[in-house]
Amino acid sequence: MLGRTLDDRYLILRQIGQGGMGAVYEARHVGTNRRVAVKVILKEAMMGEQIARFQREARIVGAVESQHITQVFDTGVDRATGCPYIAMEYLDGDDVHVLLRRNGPLPVDLAMRVASQACAGLSRAHDAGVVHRDIKSGNLFLHKNEPGSRIVKLLDFGIAKVGHELGDGGITKTGALVGSPLYMSPEQARGRPCDPRSDIFSLGVTLYEMLGGRRPFEDVTQLGELIVKICSEPARWIQDVAPWVPAELAGVVQRALAIEPSGRYQSAAEMAAALRAMLPAGHHVDEAMLVPIDPSLRSRVAPRGSPHENTGDPRALSVSNAARAITPTGAPPKKSSLAGVAIGGVIGALVLGGGLSLFLLRGRGASAADPATSTPAPADTASSTGASAPNGTNGTTVVPAPTASETASAPASAEPSASASASATAAASQIPGKAPPAKTSKPVTKPRNDDETSRK
Predict the structure, then answer these.
(1) I need a surface site. Which of 31, 78, 317, 347 has the fewest CB within 10 A?
(2) Which of 201, 315, 196, 197 minimizes the C-alpha distance to 257?
(3) What is the CATH superfamily name and number for domain 1-90?
(4) How far apart are CA 257 and CA 211, in angstroms?
(5) Calpha distance 184→392 (Å, rounded)
(6) What pLDDT digit, counting tens, does each position of 335-344 carry?
(7) Residue spans of beta strands (DSSP E) within 348-388
(8) Among all residues, which ones are annotated catalytic?
(9) CATH of 91-326, one of 2.30.40.10, 1.10.510.10, 3.40.50.1370, 3.30.70.3040
(10) What is the pLDDT of residues 56-102, one digit of tens each?
């Protein structure tokens, strides 16, 4: 193929890469001298299904307009060999997988920027009805778009799932296992229908790999065991693998890797917003950032987070959240509430009983000095009876204090209300072995300040 002119249009210069069904070459258009990447299907792989998938990739990529998705210029079939081809934007740089092999885990800031740009490309693809289904580090390419600058490009839409408007054509049968197993979402591993949230999971695996240098279940070698783990076991908390990762970012990773799609970010735009909240300087990538982690930073341990917090997974409740789920707010357990009422009644009765004795002594003196004080006062309204009520949070009993207006309007020598005396008598009668206070017909005098007896 090298040195040949493909379809009388593209002069093949060198081979860039090769996959299971095709090869990619650097080429130049003979008319415009423009440098392009030409993807050609291999002759030995020219089966009907493979050709249909290959041609469909061109339609998919051409239908999505984004600077984060490789641009397609031309498609055709070489007249000399009969091989289909796609002429695409030529990319100069490295994919993330190569960068990881060379440098190890990426610096946290760089990993977030790469993931954020990938979200931008996915968002446009999803808006066009395209689910990639093979997001991985090898399909995130860091292209040298400007001197000293890189931009993330999504590669390989060969197994993408598309909407009816793009002509799915039934290429992938229901139940077929497609994609890269270590990056698959649980529903994809089960052979079930995929939606944009499947790409979110795969991007979560890729972000995990960028931060920790490994994928969540990389130690599993058997495909069956891997599928079981993906579908049933949460990924190991990223801070256990990379302790320098901030807890907030660890929460973003964990949410993207939720087993149930409903627990993940519901769109690429939502995940991008979570990442950009931690990128105040934006998500631009400079070549100077493509370096290994500083050893001094790698040795640091970030404040510890929890896989059960801020993940968006409704099944992941912390102990405190679980307690709140079992006991609704404002409804303490019945036993605690009754105990609080009983204890409050005992204390209230003792305090009121002692106060009544003092009132009786004062009442006798007042009666002898001023007969006018012996006139009984009218009973208080229901709002000032001092009836006890359980507190909404700990079950304690609270007796409301009189309001400022009640205190101001009540004369200094006013006696306690009939309902308050009845409440004290009833509370005292609840104590085993304790008789209620003796009744008296003599008037009593209410103290000017009873704040200390108004609350437990």
Answers:
(1) 31
(2) 201
(3) Phosphorylase Kinase; domain 1 (3.30.200.20)
(4) 14
(5) 47
(6) 334 344 344 4
(7) none
(8) 134
(9) 1.10.510.10
(10) 777 777 778 889 998 888 888 888 888 888 899 999 999 999 999 99
